[in-house]
Amino acid sequence: MANIQQINGDYYGSKETLTEALPYSKINNSYMSAINNSFGIADKELSIYDDAIFYYNQAIKVSQEQIDKQSPLNNIAVVYIKQKKYDKAIKILEGILETKAFDNFIKSKARVIDNLGFAYYKKGLNKKGLLLMNESLDLRKKNDDVYGSIESYLHLAEFYSQTDVQKSNEKAKKAYEIASQLNSVDERLKALTFLISNGSEVKYGKKYIAINDSIIKVRNNFKNKFAKIKYDSKKEKDENQILRLEKAETSLALQKAHYQKIFFIIGITSLFLLLLYLRKFYENRNRIEKIKTAYDTETRIAKDIHDELANDVFNTITFTQTQSLENESIKETLIQKLDHIYSRVRGISRENNNVDIKTNYALNLKEMLSTYNNEHTNIIINNIEKVNWDLIDEIKKVTIYRVLQELMVNMKKHSQASLVVVKFDSNGKTFFIDYTDNGKGCEKSKIVKNGLQNMENRILSSKGTITFDTEPDKGFKVKITMPK
């Protein structure tokens, strides 16, 4: 049941069903290995990578045969690639290929070779990576591993996307064709992503939207249908059990007290299980709501930027069509309009580009904050060097960068502040950030969530805290506390 839920994209539901399977895992270690591996797959698809690695390692621990350890080991390597820990992934995959018994499992071996080649490519060893990815594809073709070849084509499409767009499109189209034949929706979407990013026809964008919308509806319907099936099945079992007990009670009056005791125990157990289920249900729902809130907020911001920028471009095009560009003053006006659009585009790019979390993190963070310094607003940055950024987790660095960026954007749009102070501090296990501006502020009860809610979700997901302090005409203050 859990595997069926995973195939249909219901990973949270799959984890709940796997929990129900745990009591039966004591029968055989292979059951426990399979359950832990499935837990790992669900967490990998939900991007909970540390939990995924934990479950894969648990699967390895209970595996009695060396060959049974290869699948979870390969899965750990895939997670490391997603985390950009390419050296760790390469070490694991090379170790798997050294296992002699593994030579008898051609399809699995081809998968490992492909992942190893992809890891080499991501590390920058392009020639070695391309050789292994092509070797894997040939092996899959020879052994009629049609489904496995999809992953090979997708990896090759990503490889060529930086050097040969035509080849990248060829590989992506091949992956799309096979995925369509096998009705593999997620792989079709990945292939369309490469075709769109490579600048292919608009039709691929339309296909992506149509397929994505369709699969969301199908999977949502599946979740509801699956929950009802489980409910009906449990209800039928309970009703049959009650009927049997009632018949037994009628024919065996002397055992009435015994059956009453059984019913009492069943009732208490059912109540306990119901409370446990409700707790997990609401925890999952709150998590999904937070993710959805962040997604909706970012989508809204992206739409607003797109619409506003599109209006400027349209107005400029109209201006060129209705004015004589031979006139110097009109040419100057056109140049000013284009320069304004160029500045807007650079601003958008700066706010959404990748964050350098390596050695230049403090400098990049300071430069990002300083870009909001202008003739109307003075930005003061204190003690940024006081924090040892090398000791801080990479995800937390990205979180801090994005939260401060959103604070600065919020200040620029709403605050009308002339002075902004961002102060950093640190102790042994925690670092602190205090943001203060002298803008117009607002009543706490009337704070518009949107971006502020997004900031709060980011900080809470990294186990930090964030508090907002503001009053009308008394500025805006934010205090962030984050464990290292």
TrEMBL record:
Q: Which top class of enzyme applies to this chain?
A: transferase
Keyword check for Transport: no
Which residues span the membrane?
Answer: 262-278
For the keyword Oxidoreductase, the answer is: no
- Known catalytic reactions: ATP + protein L-histidine = ADP + protein N-phospho-L-histidine
Name the InterPro entries on file: HATPase_C_sf (IPR036890), Sensor_HK_TwoCompSys (IPR050482), TPR-like_helical_dom_sf (IPR011990)
Q: Per UniProt, which keywords does this protein have?
A: Kinase, Membrane, Transferase, Transmembrane, Transmembrane helix, Two-component regulatory system
- The EC number(s) given in the record are 2.7.13.3
What's this protein's name? histidine kinase
Organism, by scientific name, is Flavobacterium ginsengisoli
